[in-house]
Specification:
Length: 459
């Protein structure tokens, strides 16, 4: 039997869809939309649980009182470790979708979450070494990989005209895993006290099984999806991959980094108790998650680059307010600015992710003119490139969460305050909105170029 024949047979069966063309409106209205929405719903569930486990140690540190002998700098480093691992595993998770099938990999990725959850339940008690905590925290990084595989899978199910909303809804529902686990931790601390962290883990173990079972029963694999090493190499050489990575560091990196660090900042900057911190930490991630699909929808209507530009301007303004509040130690002003940061980060997550397929779609139109590609060939090239780019950009963007937690760690270690960290964030957002304007909004003068520029202002 030939390798190609074996591959075809391996992709046969009830859970494999052999033909998929969402850009064909007749196909879409004739059942494609229903199938795509069903896969989206259960993708959101799995990604939601993945985000909760990824952010597990942002709540576990709230249970770690003096008996654990971990100082504030150590706790910031502890919550940074899952971000680092999550960023790295996003690349293989992206390509696992085409290798194993979106439905099959969603089941596997969900079941992998049992490992860090059981491990945390085993080690979460005073007397465990800091090294052991770090290793177990690193294991939760697999939850960060769920995002990349889920987004790559859903990107293939939806047509270009609906990607902003679909990707925003998928990511926003996943992002909600962060505030939900924080609310669960708040409930445990309120009713059982800070000495019972295993109750949080006991809640999530059955939820992991539920998400894996639902994926197995209700999701589908797309047989036309194939890994394309050529697309990966090409997208790594594409400058827009790295420019968009910088912008995604600014939006998603901010969201996940602030989500992990918010409780620790409140405890160390304003002297809040674990219970007082837990009562506040969920608000920002909740609002940032809920509004992410709105960012995608606004990008569908007005263009991702335009929404992203003004969003970074707003994030810079909110950071200025937070920096001021941090320097004068005003908790109400600090909370106002910090929650605004979450909201704008959520909006920016939606708009930047919409830009990715839009950029390659614009470049594909240029290929029709410059290389003589047919519209079908150009559309296929766009799908290949955007699918590969989503994994790379998602992975690099997650590194922003690590950088934020390391900045906080150094800031509190040296200055005993988060103010220097906020000043550095302000500078980063200024770079991001200038970059967005210079590359994706500013129209090059006809006098300076004789070649037509890609229609990136419409991205």
């Amino acid at each position: 039997m030939s390798t190609s024949t074996a591959a075809v047979r391996a992709r046969a069966g009830g859970r494999w869809i052999q033909q998929w063309d969402p850009e064909d409106e007749a196909f879409w209205d004739g059942g494609g939309k229903r199938t795509a929405n069903r896969n989206l719903a259960f993708s959101v569930l799995s990604e939601h649980i993945g985000f909760s486990i990824w952010s597990l140690w942002s709540v576990m540190v709230l249970f770690m009182g003096p008996k654990y002998h971990v100082d504030p700098a150590g706790k910031f480093f502890l919550v940074a470790m899952p971000t680092l691992v999550g960023a790295f595993v996003r690349v293989p998770y992206t390509f696992a979708v085409a290798k194993f099938g979106g439905r099959n990999w969603t089941v596997i990725a969900a079941l992998l979450l049992l490992l860090p959850t059981f491990a945390a339940a085993y080690v979460m008690h005073p007397g465990t070494s800091y090294t052991t905590f770090m290793v177990v925290a690193a294991l939760t990084g697999v939850g960060g990989g769920n995002f990349a595989s889920s987004m790559t899978n859903i990107n293939a199910f939806f047509p270009m005209r609906r990607k902003g909303w679909a990707l925003g809804l998928n990511a926003g529902g996943g992002n909600l895993g962060v505030p939900v686990i924080q609310l669960i931790a708040l409930s445990v601390i309120t009713w059982a006290g800070a000495g019972h962290p295993r109750l949080v883990l006991g809640i999530y173990l059955p939820l992991i099984i539920v998400s894996a079972t639902c994926a197995a029963l209700f999701m589908d694999n797309l047989a036309p999806m194939r890994n394309d090493g050529g697309a990966l190499r090409e997208v790594l050489r594409e400058k827009h991959t790295w420019l968009m990575s910088v912008l995604y560091i600014g939006t998603f990196g901010s969201f996940i980094g602030f989500s992990f660090a918010f409780g620790l900042v409140l405890q160390n900057q304003f002297g809040r108790t674990p219970l007082q911190a837990a009562q506040l930490t969920f608000i920002g991630p909740l609002l940032g998650s809920v509004i992410r699909p709105v960012g995608g929808k606004l990008a569908d209507r007005w263009g991702g680059s335009r929404i992203t530009f003004w969003n970074f301007v707003a994030m810079a303004a909110a950071t200025g307010l937070v920096t001021y509040a941090s320097s004068v130690k005003s908790l109400p002003v600090f909370l106002t600015g910090f929650i605004a940061l979450f909201v704008f980060a959520g909006l920016g997550n939606g708009s930047t992710y919409k830009m990715i397929p839009g950029i390659f779609d614009a470049k594909a139109q240029d290929r029709i003119v410059a290389l003589g590609d047919t519209p079908e060939e150009a559309a296929a090239w766009s799908r290949r490139m955007s699918g590969a780019a989503i994994g790379i950009i998602g992975a690099v963007g997650a590194v922003g969460g690590l950088l934020i937690n390391l900045a906080f760690r150094q800031s509190f270690l040296v200055a005993k305050s988060g103010t220097p960290a906020f000043v550095s964030f302000l500078a980063a957002y200024a770079i991001c909105f200038l970059l967005t304007w210079a590359v994706y909004l500013r129209r090059p003068s006809a006098a300076r170029t004789s070649a037509p520029a890609p229609a990136l202002a419409q991205v």
